[in-house]
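## retry 2 of 3
previous attempt timed out at serialization; input unchanged, resubmitting
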Amino acid sequence: MIKACRLLLIAALPLTGCVMSTPSTVVHQPMTVRPESRHDVYTTQGAIYSANMGRPLFEDRRARNVGDIITINIVENTQASKNSETKAERNSTTDVSLPTITGLPFKTFQGVGLNANNSTSFDGSGSNTSSNAFRSTITCTVIEVLPNGNLLVSGEKQIALKEGEEFVRFSGVVNPTMISSQNTVQSTQVADARLEFKANGFINSAQVMGWLGRFFLSFLPF
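## retry succeeded, writing output
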């Protein structure tokens, strides 16, 4: 019985390495919701026109209710640079001598001179430059309408490739007045924006340090 369990465990090990887990996320949850039912408000009279799918004549197609969709144009450009330089210098000189005085003890040390010099110099400089750009388009779902009318949106786009999967996720708070007539909004106009681009698969796993290496780096002093 024990030998059979070992064989099953060994056979299951290769399968566990093939399972690709979904990367963790920091965007607002949930990333999609179903719209509220309108059957309680509208009734269909049996015609081709469905009243529960209709909107008033002067109402556009901009997102405003839970379950509505909105397109986010992601145009993010970030550039940051920092330069610092510090210089410090200090010099000091000390001269001490014992004069020759008749009648004093320790005549051997009389006339001895002591000279001490001290010099300290420090020169430090540092530079840091960071630049990144992200351009994409993702359609999100309104998951909540806040009391002031702003829309909390969240969405995910999954792209399955031969070597793995890529995930584009976005969430944030949209002011309805910023939504264009095409039901789109720029990512720079979204408050509390959270943007992610992650992937899984063996190529992505090869770029991540193993757990044992991270364990030793957590306490090694060098």
